[in-house]
Every structure is written in C-alpha cells, then in structure tokens.
Amino acid sequence: MSPTDSPAPNVQPPTPWLRWVYLALAIAGAVLPWLANLDYMQETGGNFDVAQFIQLANANPAAASLSRDLAIGATAVLIWIVQEARRLQMRGLPWVLLICVTVAFASGAPLFLYLRERRLEELARSPAS
C-alpha cells in the first residue's frame, strides 16, 4: 500500500434504535424549551421581546456562561450539519435549519441526527455502497 492509499474506514452498520432516540430528543427539544418560552411570554405580558430575552439570558454569570456556550457550540454544530448534509446528499436540510432558528436548536440538531441515521441506513442498503 502506498502512502497515498488509505485503508477503507471501519464503518459500523447503522444502529436501528438510535434514530428513534434522536427523534424523541428532537420532540423533547421542541417541547421543553417552548414550555419555558411560553412561561417567559406569560411573565412579559404575552409577547416575546427578543432584546429582553437576550438581556435576561445574560443577567448573571451563570446565564451568560450557558448562553455563550450554546451560541458557540450551536454555531460549530450548524456548520457541521450543513457540511455533513451536503456530503451525504441528505434531504431536509432547509427544515433542520429553519427549526434550529425558529423552534429550538435543541430540536433541530437531534432532528438532523435522526435524518442522518435514516440516510446512512439508505446508503447501507443501496447496492452501490
């Protein structure tokens, strides 16, 4: 084997139950943050004031730490999601991105993982792989 030849990666077959775990997390990631959002809206008179929400998300060092951690981590994962979706020629990327910014990142990221597992299963079943 020459230095430019690399062995085929040791790819494990998809785990059938894993995609259902991701789907359950996507549902929980939609419901639980929005329950908190509804509580916030109730406390602020029924509207969603984004500026106040961001201010409250940075109201103390602990909240600021969590907000910054989520922002940086979510940005990195969103970049990976776009690249991985293109690499695997996945369907549904626009829905994933829309859910990440309108519902919750906690819903969009597991939804992407669910769709990715489904795509990996498709590729494993295809005769060309």
The biggest sheet amounts to:
none
- Give the beta-strand count: 0
Outline: elongated
Q: How many angstroms does the end-to-end distance come to?
A: 22 Å
Beta-strand content bin: under 5%
Low-confidence stretches: none
Secondary-structure content class: mainly alpha
Radius of gyration (CA) equals 19 Å
SSE string, helices as H and strands as E:
HHHHH
Mean pLDDT: 90
Helix content: over 70%
Oligomer: single chain
Number of helices: 5
Helix and strand arrangement:
Blueprint: H1 16-43, H2 50-57, H3 61-87, H4 93-102, H5 105-125
Helix pairs in contact: 1-5, 3-5, 4-5
Provide structural commentary.
- There is one protein chain.
- This protein has 129 residues and is an all-alpha fold.
- Helix content is 73%, strand content 0%.
- The chain has helices at residues 16-43, 50-57, 61-87, 93-102, 105-125.
- 17% of the residues are buried.
- The mean pLDDT is 90.
